[in-house]
Design a protein that fits this description.
The chain is an alpha+beta fold. 33% of the residues lie in helices and 15% in strands. It has five helices and four strands; from the N terminus they run αααβαββαβ. Helix 1 packs across helix 2 and helix 2 packs across helix 3.
C-alpha cells in the first residue's frame, strides 16, 4: 500500500521513482514493464504514480527530446526587453510558437534590461534568426539579444534515490 498520508516513501515507492527516472520503455504496455521491474502489478504501479501526482510528490511526467539527434542543430537563448505591463501577453505569444521550447521571465540587472527569455531550436542558425525576427514582428519587441550555443554539454535530470542499494 502506498504511504498516501506520509511524506516518507516506502522502499517500493522509491523503486517506482527510480524507474520513472530512466528511459521510458518503447512498448504498447510501458507501465506494465515498469511495474514488473519493481515487482508490482501494473494496476498497483499506476495507482501509486497517481497518488504521487495528487500528493504533489511528482509534478509532471514528460519526454525529453534529444533535439540534435532529431535534426535541430542550432539553438539560441533569446533575451527580450519586454515592458513589464505586457509581459504576460508577450510571453503567451512567444511560448505558443512551435520552435520555442522554454519561455520564462527573469529579473533584470544593471546593464541587462532583458526580462523574458525564450529557448529556440531550429535546423540552422539562419532558421533561428528567422524565428527570432518573426517573434519580434509578432510582438513588436525589438530590443533583444540572441545567445547561441557553442557546445552542448551533457544534459541530465536530477536523480532521486540513486544512492539506494539493491535496485538497478
Amino acid at each position: 500500500m502506498c504511504n498516501s498520508n506520509s511524506n516518507e516513501l516506502s522502499e517500493i515507492d522509491k523503486k517506482i521513482v527510480q524507474v520513472l527516472q530512466e528511459d521510458f520503455p518503447l512498448s504498447k504496455e510501458p507501465y506494465k514493464i515498469l511495474a514488473e521491474k519493481v515487482g508490482l502489478e501494473e494496476e498497483e504501479f499506476l495507482k501509486r504514480v497517481k497518488n504521487f501526482v495528487s500528493e504533489n510528490k511528482i509534478r509532471k511526467l514528460g519526454a525529453v527530446l534529444q533535439h540534435r539527434t532529431a535534426g535541430f542543430k542550432s539553438n539560441a537563448l533569446c533575451a527580450w526587453n519586454v515592458p513589464p505591463e505586457n509581459l504576460n501577453e508577450i510571453a503567451a505569444i512567444m511560448s505558443s510558437h512551435a520552435a520555442v521550447s522554454h519561455c520564462y521571465d527573469r529579473n533584470t540587472a544593471p546593464n541587462w534590461n532583458y526580462n523574458l527569455y525564450t529557448m529556440i531550436h531550429a535546423k540552422s542558425r539562419a532558421e533561428c534568426d528567422a524565428i527570432i525576427n518573426e517573434l519580434s514582428k509578432l510582438t513588436g519587441i525589438t530590443d533583444f539579444q540572441a545567445l547561441y550555443s557553442k557546445k552542448e554539454w551533457k544534459k541530465t535530470s536530477m536523480k532521486y534515490f540513486a544512492e539506494e542499494e539493491g535496485f538497478k
